[in-house]
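Model it.
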Amino acid sequence: MSTDFTPALQQAIEALKREGKEPTVASIKSRLTQSVPMPLIISALQRWKKNGKLPKVEMVEKESDADVKIAALEAQVKVLTQRLDALEQHLASKS
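Modeled.
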């Protein structure tokens, strides 16, 4: 899952430029209507100053270690359940 902060940052920078102000990290942060991580603001401002345009700024949320472990365990339980069902069917057919 990812969160796109580009529109919010673009709006803040454009508002500052319309007022004739040079965008800074602090001035952009004060104009944001949503919470944006500071490293993303800094990176976006640096790229904007270098290229004159704002790149897509998004934050991708990593799955937590617990989520990954749970998914692996669920897959393992599924495989073991299928094997158990096959063994039970095999034993039932011998009886």
